[in-house]
């Protein structure tokens, strides 16, 4: 039985040809396209400082897990090892679990929890611990299961889109969903139509997924922060800005909590 650390011990092999540029790196573009994860995680932690201070410092865990995903995904594509695949998938699972625990609006909690966020968090974290152990049983279905969690997030933000009249929130939801849908289309296309892409020598769809899904992160993050703030921080005014400049045609969104001018 091959070691779980061995090169190509994973059952999954992406469309990009292996070992084209180096005997150490199995999929070159798929490995290095993860660099945006390593940049956006710390950058968002810096930009969202005022929001995190007001809401919860646990939000830094989401950013830290996002950076872990970047490292594990690089390791996975460089080696195509079973361990790399599991680390990548388990980090995604825990990042989604932390996001659910912190941001899921109480109105979507199961009724028996009666709106208790601490009980909801216990339920999500115990479920995630069990699923983490189960994930070794059928590793090939893990990625599909993770993508179906995204469908639930999209369903929930669609309900919030219908409820809100805020143009700022509607714009964020629109951009996040378009980015996520384009990312998912690239992921599925790389998985299902690889023989076609190989015929035309275009092996980059999974790298494009990495880039698009890493840009979805700041937009999805700001979307969830705005949705959550409507319920949990109703007295605060949140403003969306773009890094590096609000006036540039493209940029990364972030939130600034406006200072309370109220003094006695
Ligand atoms: C109430 C919860 C709100 C959660 C919002 C969180 C927004 C998170 C945005 C992005 C997460 C990025 C995770 C990307 C992982 C990339 C690593 C990777 O490529 N792994 C592959 C192997 O290399 C693996 O096959 C991929 C598996 C599927 C990953 C599924 C990710 C789900 C992303 C959920 C995005 C929801 C966006 C909703 C927008 C409104
Ligand atoms: Ca490959
Ligand atoms: Zn990948």
UniProtKB/TrEMBL annotation:
<keyword id="KW-0472">Membrane</keyword>
<feature type="transmembrane region" description="Helical">
    <location>
        <begin position="59"/>
        <end position="78"/>
    </location>
</feature>
<feature type="binding site">
    <location>
        <position position="206"/>
    </location>
    <ligand>
        <name>Zn(2+)</name>
    </ligand>
</feature>
<feature type="binding site">
    <location>
        <position position="18"/>
    </location>
    <ligand>
        <name>Ca(2+)</name>
    </ligand>
</feature>
<keyword id="KW-0479">Metal-binding</keyword>
<keyword id="KW-0106">Calcium</keyword>
<feature type="binding site">
    <location>
        <position position="14"/>
    </location>
    <ligand>
        <name>Ca(2+)</name>
    </ligand>
</feature>
<comment type="pathway">
    <text>Lipid metabolism; sphingolipid metabolism.</text>
</comment>
<feature type="binding site">
    <location>
        <position position="27"/>
    </location>
    <ligand>
        <name>Ca(2+)</name>
    </ligand>
</feature>
<keyword id="KW-1133">Transmembrane helix</keyword>
<dbReference type="Pfam" id="PF05875">
    <property type="entry name" value="Ceramidase"/>
</dbReference>
<keyword id="KW-0862">Zinc</keyword>
<dbReference type="InterPro" id="IPR008901">
    <property type="entry name" value="ACER"/>
</dbReference>
<comment type="similarity">
    <text>Belongs to the alkaline ceramidase family.</text>
</comment>
<feature type="binding site">
    <location>
        <position position="77"/>
    </location>
    <ligand>
        <name>Zn(2+)</name>
    </ligand>
</feature>
<dbReference type="GO" id="GO:0016020">
    <property type="term" value="C:membrane"/>
</dbReference>
<keyword id="KW-0378">Hydrolase</keyword>
<feature type="transmembrane region" description="Helical">
    <location>
        <begin position="90"/>
        <end position="108"/>
    </location>
</feature>
<dbReference type="GO" id="GO:0005783">
    <property type="term" value="C:endoplasmic reticulum"/>
</dbReference>
<keyword id="KW-0746">Sphingolipid metabolism</keyword>
<feature type="transmembrane region" description="Helical">
    <location>
        <begin position="171"/>
        <end position="188"/>
    </location>
</feature>
<protein>
    <recommendedName>
        <fullName>Alkaline ceramidase</fullName>
        <ecNumber>3.5.1.-</ecNumber>
    </recommendedName>
</protein>
<dbReference type="GO" id="GO:0046514">
    <property type="term" value="P:ceramide catabolic process"/>
</dbReference>
<feature type="binding site">
    <location>
        <position position="210"/>
    </location>
    <ligand>
        <name>Zn(2+)</name>
    </ligand>
</feature>
<feature type="binding site">
    <location>
        <position position="16"/>
    </location>
    <ligand>
        <name>Ca(2+)</name>
    </ligand>
</feature>
<dbReference type="GO" id="GO:0046872">
    <property type="term" value="F:metal ion binding"/>
</dbReference>
<dbReference type="GO" id="GO:0017040">
    <property type="term" value="F:N-acylsphingosine amidohydrolase activity"/>
</dbReference>
<comment type="pathway">
    <text>Sphingolipid metabolism.</text>
</comment>
<keyword id="KW-0812">Transmembrane</keyword>
<feature type="binding site">
    <location>
        <position position="13"/>
    </location>
    <ligand>
        <name>Ca(2+)</name>
    </ligand>
</feature>
<dbReference type="GO" id="GO:0046512">
    <property type="term" value="P:sphingosine biosynthetic process"/>
</dbReference>
<feature type="transmembrane region" description="Helical">
    <location>
        <begin position="28"/>
        <end position="47"/>
    </location>
</feature>
<feature type="transmembrane region" description="Helical">
    <location>
        <begin position="208"/>
        <end position="227"/>
    </location>
</feature>
<keyword id="KW-0443">Lipid metabolism</keyword>
<comment type="function">
    <text>Hydrolyzes the sphingolipid ceramide into sphingosine and free fatty acid.</text>
</comment>
